[in-house]
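Memo to structure team: turn this sequence into structure tokens by end of day. - J.P.
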Amino acid sequence: GAAGVIAAYGAVRVLAARGGARLPRLDSVGFDLTVWGFVAATIVLTGLVVGIFPALRTADNDLSTVMNESGRTVRGSRSTRRMLALFVVAEVAVAVALVAGAVRLIRGFDRIHDIDPGFVAGQTVVADVLLPPDRYASLERVAGWWAAVQPRLREAGARGVATASALRLQHEWDTTTFVDIVSRPDIPPDQRPNGRLRRVSAGFFSVMGIRLVTGRPFTRGDGPDAPGVAIVNQAFVRRFLGDRDPLRERVSGFRARRVDGRFVPEEVAIVGVAADVRYADLTVPAEPIVYVPITQIPALRQSLVLTGNGEQFLTDVGKVLRDIDPNVAVEFGTMSGLVETSLERQRLGVL
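Reply from structure team:
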């Protein structure tokens, strides 16, 4: 029992060192008096059970008869041989089940790597930023910050520059929005279309390697004063549009324009359909998504997506962001790192 506690303590430390700290509540696994009390009770109970059952077996038999039966052969009596045979069968059965389960687990983990995530990770750098709400309280201020950042990042060596309110396999910051299809006013309220509202910049799909099935991507012309536009993914089309041509549809319910001091709902034209991307998990099917220009519906928390590599590149990017506004908090990562982190739980399971 003492050796088991020592081994468990070491195993938890190894899991934490290998990335297990990302697992929910692993940091709360401690070795306090409760654990030691449980171990002590288990040791005592096990000792009693192991000692009592043989005693009970011999209690109803004449001791000399039992000894004579056991002494007939090296293998013991018939009942003893039968019990030992059952133990062997049980051990083999459990071993086969464990090996089969391990093989299935390894094969399943290997298949996860073959899943098409719907984007290209490559050498993509991610810079998570948080704009101070007191300094960026208006759409114009947020759009102005992004307009100033783009050319400076390209000068710093970024081959591709884009931003989004949330990236796949990260913490989910985006909200779900109801979407009314203008040509389908007969849809019952309980079947009202909905999807994740993801705000992205022009160039986002090309930088991320997300394929456009039909239509066009967002452009710089889709600014704050331009007509509202949206791009939906294939899951949205399958669930809510069916055989209808998505490029002929208009939607509403999530954008409003300020007119004479009050907000007036505005219809938005669907200008493209993007391929499905697995956002929450590689093993979870894609959910309906409505992409909108981040210049039309702003986000204070953004994830900049940059194609470039090298430590100097990261240093230059950080310097550019600090020069433009030192009050903007920045945290760096990579898309390939996000993919690997998302598989941490499965990797630990295989281990």
